[in-house]
Amino acid sequence: MRRISSIAPDWWDYTTLDLGQKITDKIAAMGPEEMIKMSRPGFKVVFYDTVEEFYLAEALEYISAWRQASESQPVGICGPIGPTEQLPLVARLVNELGLSLKHAHYWSMDEWVIDGKEAPTEHSLSFKKAFHDLCYSRIKKELAMPMENVHFPQVDTSNFIESFKKAKCVIMQGGQGDVKHWAFNEPPKREGKYKDAPMSIDEYKALPTRILDLHPITVQQNSRLHCGGNVPMIPTKAVTVGPKETWETDKVSIWHAGAHDNPFGMRLTTYMISNKVPDTSVPMSVLADHPNVQFNFLRSGLGSCSVEMH
User: Fold this and answer.
1) Within a domain: residue 82?
2) Count of domains forming the chain
3) CATH number of the domain where residue 83 is located
4) Which residues, in sequence order, are bridge partners of residue 189?
5) At a CB cut-off of 8 Å and minimum separation 6, what does 153 contact?
6) What is the pLDDT of residues 90-145, one digit of tens each?
7) Phi and psi at residue 298, to the nearest 5°
């Protein structure tokens, strides 16, 4: 029998893993040099020494993707709202380079669901609003992509899913949350046929864009990041791009700045992907099965797993 979660007993999550004390101690002790050595074919670990270099590299992935777009071959990138620091840099680079985005596409990874509807753009926490304010509205009008090329998931997911057939998504960026998700791909609930064991890897990889409940860890994390810990302000449902769309993308690029997950979590998923031990209780680890994944770390954001009493 698998462990019961020490945080949310009705869910699977990383606290239900049974890796053994020796393994978890090894993971906790890893530093940047050990983590870089975790690179293998299909999985690359990269460290950046400064905040400026880190977010510039993230922004340049947008430029690299959009430069490939043409009338005969529209191309785009799927990106997160969190981290967001790269978005103003993306707009500035587009403007400075005079890069026309006429045939470029952008997919947002997710959006909150409130009272059965996606969060309206006037909502203070709206991901669509954040992308518009931090990036799209800052791009010169003559360079900006047509609004029909900007795709946000909605409660009716059909148009969003169909949009991946209209252009090639060459890269999917993401952050890693405290529950070890990318986008809002949460671990499965501990119910029904998943009462005694979590969903299989193949089942998880087949999940499309969908509405789902958010793990309590995710709700708490987002309250910490977005509204000073005001938990009641955070919606408990979201619509998110699925693993299915992720596996249709050429490359998955995850950006670890140190704000969205803790030091142990960043080390844990690096270890699990490197050693090809995917488990759906740790959603990010399922990327061990993807052929092209890159983990990008801000060295100063990696932190330490040493024991300190405060």
Assistant:
1) yes
2) 1
3) 3.40.50.1360
4) 11
5) 108, 109, 110, 111, 118, 160, 209, 239, 240, 241
6) 999 999 999 999 999 999 999 999 999 999 999 999 999 999 999 999 999 999 99
7) -85, 115
Contact 114, 236 (CB under 8 A): no
Q: What domain range is 253 assigned to?
A: 32-301
Is there a contact between 170 and 250 (Cβ–Cβ < 8 Å)?
yes
Amino acid identity at 42: G
Which residue bears the tokens 């400026």? 52
Asked whether residue 13 is domain-assigned, the answer is: no
Residue 240 DSSP symbol: E
281 neighbors 242 (Cβ within 8 angstroms): no
Say if residue 88 is exposed, middle or buried (CB neighbours under 10 Å; 0-12, 13-18, 19+). Answer: middle
CA dihedral 4, 264, 209, 107 (to 10 degrees): 170
Hey, what are 192's tokens?
A: 């029904």
pLDDT in tens, 11-47: 999 999 998 999 999 999 999 999 999 999 999 999 9
